[in-house]
Amino acid sequence: MKHFGVKLSLYLNYFVFAILLNSVGIVILKSLNNYGVAEDTASILEAFKDLPIAIVSFLVASFLPRLGYKKAMLIALALVTIGCIAMYFGNSFDTAKLLFATVGASFALIKVSVYSVIGLVTYSTKEHNSLMSSIEGVFMFGIALAYYLFPAFNTEGQPDAWLNVYWLLAAMTVISFVILLFTKFENPPQPEGSNVKEDFVEMFKLLSKVLIIIFVISAFLFVMIEQGIMTWLPTFNERVLGLTENTAIMMASILAISLGIGRLLAGALTRKISWIYVLSGCTIIAMALVLFVLPELLNLEVSGVENISDIPLLGFAFPIIGLFIAPIYPLLNSVVLSALPKTLHSPMTGLIVIFSALGGTIGSRIIGYLFKEVGAQKAFYFTLIPMTVLLICYFILKKLTENNAVQG
């Protein structure tokens, strides 16, 4: 298989960072229970993760082709290895902030590099879409693994036992580092600017195009929905469904698994069906789940639950929303990146990462605020607003891409 080694490295790096990034909901729950912080205070961990992603992407996205994507990813893996070890020894809410700041900054390097390399190893829109969706699908399975890894290290009566998971995570980043080190990468095409300053300006020139503006709004809204639900689902499961901490965390894995399956299916569906129909249909179904399934879930009486198999079938209904929101992000990214020349993939990815990070931070903060002010039972109804706006954005994007507005 052509470029097999490169693609394997992309999958491994994304898988490792999926576990690290999306453990934030688990660490929020541990912070509430172990470190005694309030809900709105705990939600700041999302900002410590996402703001460094935005800031680092803002500063280095246009520069990475000059540095080299392989070097950037090696630096990222080395940093998070140090961060994992620091979390084990620090064992505090402040150390958790430091960990997620390190993970966020490193992920900016990883994501810009991965998205840019996808453009180098694919040669058609369909191939680009397929690889993008499958890599994002693997990312979701990494998230799902996190919901089992952390409970596996939880020991009743030993509140600090869960920290041992960070030794395993550090080992995983070291393995990924070694594999990447011995993988041969092609040199990326150099940007049109003659220096870093011109590269930086080139990235923001993209924002002058209507298509790019609509796209970054869409990316922002989707991540607001996804991260808002994903971050607070473990806490929702514990407080609304009355599950134990371990079961609440593992139950949240259903969302991640459904996201992974949804993204893999999206890659296959869009080979035969236009992306606009896939995204519109999925978003409408997701809205229906919030409107009709969530109220039933709030009235569900759960008792005597010792593991996931004891939870009534209805308890699994809301996390299945991941199956339908899953295709949104990779398909929108692929639609826009495929329309751009490869020399602009790195700066465009920088914009994607920046607005995705901001969406994740704001979404988590809003849901955290709603959990405190209106209660866990009603907080997720907020997601209907950005879903409605997204539906409108799809059709604007479709019209703009048909008119080849990227080139305008």
Task: Output the keywords.
408 residues, mainly alpha, 74% helix
What is the general shape?
Answer: globular
Calculate the terminal CA-CA distance, rounded to whole Å: 37 Å
Order of helices and strands: HHHHHHHHHHHHHHHHHH
Number of helices: 18
Q: Give the helix/strand class.
A: mainly alpha
Strand content: under 5%
Description:
By secondary structure, the chain is mostly helical. Helix content is 74%, strand content 0%. The chain has 18 helices and no strands. It has helices at 4-21, 24-35, 39-42, 44-60, 64-67, 69-90, 93-121, 125-152, 165-181, 196-205, 210-239, 245-251, 253-269, 275-298, 321-325, 328-338, 345-373, 384-402. It is globular. The protein starts with a helix and ends in a 6-residue tail after the last helix.
Please render the helix and strand layout as text.
Elements: H1 4-21, H2 24-35, H3 39-42, H4 44-60, H5 64-67, H6 69-90, H7 93-121, H8 125-152, H9 165-181, H10 196-205, H11 210-239, H12 245-251, H13 253-269, H14 275-298, H15 321-325, H16 328-338, H17 345-373, H18 384-402
